[in-house]
Amino acid sequence: MKRWLSTLFKPAPSVPAEPLPPSPDQLRAWELSEAEWVREKLMKTPLNRLITIHGIPVKIKMELAAQGVSNIQELVQSWDTLRISPPYRAMVGSWLEELQDDLQKQYAEFTATKPERLA
Fold first, then answer.
1. Hey, is 113 helix, strand or coil?
2. pLDDT tens digits for the chain (119 residues)?
3. Could you state, in order of their start, the residue ranges of all structural domains in the chain?
4. Residue 7: helix, strand or coil by DSSP?
5. Its pTM surpasses 0.90
6. Using an 8 Å Cβ cutoff, are 84 and 63 in contact?
């Protein structure tokens, strides 16, 4: 009886899964240069990501919000006209540089997934 039961619960042989075909967004992203890819990702990053990762002080967040900045794209576009104190400007600038560095590392990982037939 035990032998019969053990045959019921044997694990199925593993079958290697076929990789899914790349999505149109992935195909388009693989065609971008590193600079274009990083910039596109940076511009789509919500300002809350900077706040979450770096713990932007509430004072800076409130200053940016008071000036209508809610995402990184608006932050970058209005960088020259923002009225924030120099120490805070330096902090936000360094956080943006760190985020850009992180995105460049992600780009390297992303391009490593590019199928050879598309390379």
1. coil
2. 556 556 666 666 666 667 677 778 778 887 888 888 888 888 887 777 666 655 667 778 778 888 888 888 888 888 888 888 888 888 888 888 888 888 899 888 888 877 765 55
3. 33-118
4. helix
5. no
6. yes
